[in-house]
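Whether sequence alone determines local backbone shape is best considered at the level of individual chains. We regard such an encoding as a compact summary of how the chain folds. The sequence in question and its structure tokens are set out directly beneath this paragraph.
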Amino acid sequence: MDTIIDLKDASKALDLSNIRFQLIRLEDTITFHLIERVQFPLNKTIYQPGAIDLGSDKNLSFMDWYLREQEKTQSLIRRYEAPDEYPFFPDALKTPILKPLDYPEILYPNNVNVNEDIKRFYVEKFLPAVCPDFGRGDSGERAENYGSSATCDIACLQALSRRIHFGKFVAESKFQSDREKYERLIKAGDRDGIGESITNAAVEKQVLARLRLKAQTYGTDPSSANANAAGKINVDAVESMYRDFVIPITKEVEVEYLMQRLEPRPTGGKEPARAR
């Protein structure tokens, strides 16, 4: 798990400066994973249920089947016990074989999970915009790198999921910093007001500029003498992904988390620890 926040220390996990640093690090992770994915063509067959024979799992696409099996295995080693990890297939999770880590109560209990939206955008909108066609169509299961493509997809999707659901940490930190204001907005059901209160347009602009620079830099061969050589990834598409999807849906996660922040707590639950 790519993290620099000690999730066993709730006060550090809710410190906005630590959260921002983690989000910047995740930009690197996402960018590198995307560059790996665009080595391969779209290979749309792997996203079509029933296109590849999966036996009894015929209702799943190859990528969904692979992702589900990965999550099943990763759940055995506690991946989804961490408060910053969210499964795409929660019904597939198993009881970990490792003893549980002692995580404190960081976030308020909630059921916000936008992974289906993330996967839909990634497969239907983003990949067609960035994957090369190499001047040919999908050549089929015996000729294409279906397994490698799906492996890269899973890395991309899990990194995007962590980045987007990290908005809950931002929301909890902001709630604690001005509880009176957020309680008023939540009780009024004012989603627009909550959205406005958590928006920082200047920071969003910085994020987009930084991400564009990273995509350009990481996607350029430093040994190339040709300054005009094509990069390894469509920089405009990466920037657009963040501007038109990642930032808005992260905000949606934050708003929906806060809308559940005042709901009755399950028996035995504790109030999240306070940020420093």
Remarks:
- Residues 10-259 form a domain with the Chorismate Mutase, subunit A fold (CATH 1.10.590.10).
- The two ends are 24 Å apart (CA to CA).
